[in-house]
Amino acid sequence: MDEYKGKTLSWRLSDGVIELSLNRPPGNEIGLAMLDDLERFVAALPALEARASALILHSEQKAVFSAGADLRELYEEAQKIDASAAAKGVRAFLERIHAVLNKLDTSPITTIAAVHGVCFGGGFELALVCDLIIADKMARFCFPELRLGLIPGFGGIPRLKRDIGNGVVRDLLLTGRSINATKGLSVGLVSQVTAEGEALRVARFTAAQTTKFDRGTSSAAKQFIKPLPAEELRREIDIFCDLFGRPAVMEGLRKFVENTGAHPYLP
Amino acid sequence: MKTIEETTDEILNLAATHFKFPRTNLAATDDFYKKLGIDSLQALELLTRLENHFGVELPDYEVQGVSDFHTLATRIQARL
Which ipTM value was assigned to this complex? Predict the structure, then answer.
């Protein structure tokens, strides 16, 4: 299927480049609907990869790449069931999202996240599966999970630690502060910073460059330089699920969901 | 080194330009959430524009609770 339009995303293969566009207003929140669509995409991916050299992941939302996991859905679903069932549901969701993200992470083709605006939490973790992050100068990256009494659960810590220094990971994780694209470039998170609104265009130039190389060689190079941190990813799921069982987490989720102020995105 | 007045003035100019608000109607003591009518995403956008303009990092926790231009200017001034 060279083209697909789902509820939360669409994809298109053209001239050896796949473009996966997130489009779930308001913030491309990653909940059950987007997970379903992402699973559909990774199921179609092997056939697409056979005719592609690169994948570009980007957002169609004006001010947001992705605001992260759908916390409202998580809270509302957890309210309908007892704590034990909620814990099982969270683990099942994490297993599914990890399976999807691991497939994207280990795709044999070159993957590029074209990021603008808010790239927080699970959205940041989604961008981190890509080989390159090309960000416009208005992009912001953040792990706000600690304010909810949680750690990032979509593989963010192991993947960020694979790419940049542990000290920077601790700074982002333990302060919950957000950083802009220029800072991201200086710490090695971001490959290229573009003018406002130009990340996708620059990502397309970069993707076109990858089509000039032998696919087998690119794939071998990627396998060599980008191993999947499988053991740490497993541990992350366990730690997340242990923390999720604490009462403070549900209280944090309730506060976030009920927050009508101007600062819900500020840690 | 810029003075606090210069920094405040640059912030007001930037906010007026970006949010298409008459500069003459903006004052240092204004609550920018109320005056500009901005939401959290736009506040983050303003934060990023200020960081890019002044070439500084402004951790979110330093500006959390700040809602007037003058206090924002003091936070930026501390990092220039």
Answer: 0.91
